[in-house]
Amino acid sequence: MSKVCDDFGCELAEFNGEEDHVHLLVRFPATVQLSKLVNSLKGVSSRILRRDHMKHLRRYLWGGHLWSRSYYVGTVGGPTIEKVEEFIRGQQRPE
Predict the structure, then answer these.
(1) Which domains are seen in the chain, by residue range?
(2) Which residues are the signal sequence here (predicted)?
(3) Residue 64's pLDDT is what?
């Protein structure tokens, strides 16, 4: 995830998740097309995870896909960046 963010000129500030989803806090310039960043994050991570952990991942696939088509992107404006980082760090790490 960090390498993909670097390739887009972004910074992966926090990364964590739960059994069925992940949370990423990414600092990005206004020139980044978020849909392209998300598609790259999903595509690259899917290829690497399938290559290295396919036996374990089989039970998590969505009709053969690791990630669903949907995603949520929100901007931080209300809570401080520290509160968002704290929330992400507090999530259960995927096995």
Answers:
(1) 2-89 (3.30.70.1290)
(2) none
(3) 81
